[in-house]
Design brief:
By secondary structure, this protein is of the alpha+beta class. The chain has helices at 35-40, 81-90, 98-101, 104-112, 121-148, 159-176, 204-208, 238-256, 263-278, 308-322, 325-333, 368-377, 400-413, 422-428, 445-454, 492-513; strands at residues 10-12, 27-31, 53-56, 64-68, 72-77, 115-120, 177-186, 190-199, 230-236, 279-289, 297-305, 337-349, 352-362, 381-388, 391-396, 439-443, 473-480, 483-491. The strands form two sheets. Strands 6-7-8-18-17-16-9-10-11-15-14-13-12 form a 13-stranded antiparallel beta sheet, with helices on both faces. Strands 1-2-5-4-3 form a five-stranded antiparallel beta sheet, with helices on one face. Strand 12 (337-349) and strand 13 (352-362) form a beta hairpin. 27% of the residues are buried.
Length: 514
């Protein structure tokens, strides 16, 4: 009684009363038409006491309190009595309210969405940062102790350094992010999720999220595939990619325990920068699954090629960069043998020279990681690379030669008016304005399940689902002015297909039990 069921509900925290992490310091705003009706018309709501607070709950178990804050009942646990007593003076707060602090875009998101979640990351850092850091250090100490006792598996040999990297990434995110928000908007055919992350001005994160100068060429959609587990289309901006490369290489140096000024780190940094500078424009990638082959997946890439000669030099340098020093050492610490073999002009197709890269990865065949690698890659990863019509095309699959030849045919014969795969077209239409995004992804969870279950190196009690799936999740994103925006659309059809896959697996398990 007295609750406006058509109104807006809100959950927020922390309430005033301390800086320590406490899940109970959360308030719930319940829209009401009349507080007296709310207090008197509900048997589990007591009449206001001298402080104007009402106990909520059955007799003897009244764990909640409510305060009248004008149009809303502010509800919290009884431990927050003082905060609720103060609520009448600090709600509403006028110019100091959250509504007044949001920019126009965020305010519109809050008012137009069915559900809006907003996090002040600086408050999160203040409350939870020290606790998270302590837990990360505890995990690192545990891994270091196992390593010193000789009980850590080979894959965890450098776990301490890896934990430092994770801790550093998380610390940077908390310190350099201003806010993050998520909206949910359901419709009869799909569910839309929109994520917005804003960096603090003048931070490294804000510089990374300045936005790309390149624009995505949607005509590259013709190189994507129906039936793929994942498709990706993205703008390739050398400057933005270089920023991400620098950040990633700094993490690599930290993981290896070397300063960023180390000559080998600088060599890898230059190699990455040269690689990025040689390509540009738009990248199209498709990942498809073939559970009966090794590897059980295939990748196809098409990307603009700005400097073929520079890329050729980069290709020549790759084996020496990867086969010795820091990169090879990291694999060795994980108990893996790794090397790269380059073969120039491995074959020619329709006057196009095709190069070959072979990535050999091996481990003890009796170890779990060795069995997983053999299950995934067989004898290794074979990549075919070619330059055609100012585009770089490359592929790796069970039959990389056939895959690269198919790409060459497509590039040579397909014009800009070639048809866009129907699945890609349908997914892109789920997100209005996706043509202006920096990247677009389609993702099929059913096909991912089918591939993942085929890669398990040991027998499993249920067969992978054979459910046919023709719909895909769509993900689009862009960055500009220190802000990252990502939109996700989940079609109802895909949820139905996913449910069908789970039901099929459940029936299979029941048949085996019977």
């Amino acid at each position: 009684n007295g609750v406006v069921m058509a109104g807006d509900f809100a959950v927020f925290g922390p309430l005033p009363g301390g800086d320590s992490p406490d899940p109970s310091r959360v308030g719930i705003l319940v829209p009401i038409s009349d507080y007296q009706k709310f207090a008197k018309g509900n048997p589990n709501v007591a009449a206001p006491d001298a402080a104007g607070l009402s106990l909520i709950g059955p007799e003897g178990d009244q764990g909640l309190l409510a305060a009248n804050v004008g149009g809303f009942a502010l509800v919290s646990t009884t431990g927050n009595r003082q905060a609720l007593t103060e609520a009448k003076s600090w709600m509403p707060r006028g110019a100091a309210s959250l509504a007044q602090r949001l920019n126009a875009d965020e305010a519109k998101r809050a008012q137009s969405s069915a559900v809006w979640l907003y996090a002040n990351i600086q408050t999160v850092q203040k409350m939870f940062g020290p606790m998270i850091e302590a837990k990360m250090q505890e995990a690192k100490q545990t891994m270091d102790q196992l390593k010193n006792m000789g009980q850590a598996p080979p894959m965890a040999a450098n776990a301490g350094a890896i934990m430092d990297v994770y801790s550093g990434v998380l610390k940077t995110f908390l310190k350099e992010t201003q806010s993050a928000s998520l909206t949910l908007n359901p419709s009869a055919t799909s569910l839309r999720l929109d994520l917005a992350v804003a960096a603090l001005p003048q931070t490294d994160m804000a510089k990374i999220l300045t936005g790309d100068s390149a624009t995505m060429d949607r005509s590259f959609m013709r190189y994507l595939q129906n039936g793929a587990m994942m498709n990706m289309l993205g703008a390739v901006d050398s400057a933005s990619w270089s920023k991400f490369n620098d950040w990633g290489i700094s993490l690599l140096a930290q993981m290896a325990g070397k300063p960023v000024t180390d000559p080998e780190i600088q060599k890898i940094r230059k190699f990455a920068a040269d690689s990025t500078a040689a390509v540009g424009g738009t990248l199209a990638m498709s990942m498809s699954a073939d559970p009966k082959s090794k590897p059980p997946f295939a990748f196809r890439y098409v990307v603009g090629l700005k400097d073929p000669q520079a890329f050729s030099r980069i290709l020549d340098q790759m084996p020496s960069i990867l086969n010795s020093g820091l990169v090879a050492g990291l694999y060795q610490q994980m108990g893996l043998k790794f090397n790269v073999e380059l073969q120039r002009k491995a074959e020619t197709y329709k006057d196009v020279s095709i190069d070959s890269l072979r990535f050999n990865i091996a481990a003890d065949p009796n170890s779990p990681q060795g069995q997983m690698i053999a299950s995934m890659y067989g004898q290794g990863i074979n990549v075919r690379i070619a330059a055609v019509n100012n585009l770089l095309v490359y592929a790796f699959a069970a039959d990389s030669s056939a895959a690269i030849k198919s790409l060459i045919d497509q590039v040579k014969t397909a014009g800009a008016s070639a048809a866009v795969p129907s699945e890609v077209q349908a997914a892109s239409q789920l997100i209005p304005g996706s043509e202006k995004a920096d990247f677009l992804l389609t993702y099929n969870i059913v096909r991912l399940m089918q591939m993942g279950m085929s890669m398990v190196p040991m027998p499993i009690p249920v067969q992978p689902p054979t459910t046919k799936s023709t719909s895909n999740l769509a993900i689009a994103g862009s960055s500009a002015d220190g802000k990252l925006s990502i939109q996700v659309a989940v079609p109802k059809q895909h949820l139905q297909e996913l449910m069908g896959a789970f039901m099929q697996m459940q029936q299979g398990m029941q048949q085996q039990q019977n």
